[in-house]
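Retro notes (design track)

What went well: tokenization of the new backbones is finally stable.
What didn't: we kept losing track of which sequence belonged to which structure.
Fix going forward: every design gets posted as structure first, then sequence, in one message. First example under the new rule, 230 residues:
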């Protein structure tokens, strides 16, 4: 972060910067985000800080506890297991429908997305990388055309994205992208059973690669200003 911050910095830019600090592990799960300290760091009003925190809360990156304040999300291993268990059920069915419905135009769109994933993996924007890996699954649902399923997956993918953003390594993210490509190859070949198995295996690999060793204890006593200015 620059030494001198533009006083006109938008709430969106503040939210993006906080996310950057979270995904780079400068702000561990459970860190309290004090409004006064954030306002001092970004040289803006607390009203703008509240707007940024609300954005992050809607994306489930942070949680706002009444009368206590805002904290970096700290999803548990149990929550992750529940989320991925539901995803395996839904996305097994999704994989079958996708193979049956996907057109050449759909595959072209997904190939473009996979290229964006590959490019993001070569960069340092962990937020973009996480979003693209999550959006792959939403794209599949959009191809199938079931609005209810798409909305359910949006919610689950959002929760999964926060979990992976906090607990997945860059190497594991690269493996996820490779597995996306393998799924599309099987789907394009019309191999339904292989496509379904690849999807189930992929979600299992993502869940299995999460690292919950940091239970948030490192957040206690964390100097918020120092972390954001690092």
């Amino acid at each position: 972060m620059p030494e001198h911050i533009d006083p006109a910095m938008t709430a969106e830019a503040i939210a993006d910067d906080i996310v950057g600090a979270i995904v780079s592990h400068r702000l561990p799960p459970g860190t309290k985000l004090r409004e006064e300290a954030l306002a001092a760091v970004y040289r803006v009003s607390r009203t703008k800080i509240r707007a940024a925190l609300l954005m992050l809360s809607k994306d489930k990156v942070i949680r706002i506890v009444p009368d206590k304040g805002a904290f970096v999300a700290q999803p548990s291993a149990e929550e992750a297991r529940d989320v991925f268990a539901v995803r395996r059920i839904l996305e097994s069915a999704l994989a079958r429908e996708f193979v049956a419905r996907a057109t050449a135009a759909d595959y072209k769109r997904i190939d473009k997305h996979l290229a964006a994933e590959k490019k993001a993996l070569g960069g340092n924007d962990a937020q973009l990388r996480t979003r693209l890996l999550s959006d792959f699954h939403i794209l599949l649902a959009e191809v199938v055309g079931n609005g209810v399923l798409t909305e359910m997956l949006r919610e689950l993918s959002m929760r999964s994205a926060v979990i992976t953003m906090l607990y997945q390594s860059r190497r594991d993210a690269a493996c996820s992208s490779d597995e996306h490509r393998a799924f599309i190859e099987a789907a394009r070949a019309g191999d339904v059973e292989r496509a379904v198995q690849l999807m189930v295996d992929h979600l299992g690999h993502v869940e299995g690669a999460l690292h919950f060793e940091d239970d948030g204890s490192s957040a206690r006593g964390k100097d918020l200003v120092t972390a954001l200015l690092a």
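Added context from the reviewer: The beta strands are 32-33, 62-65, 69-72.
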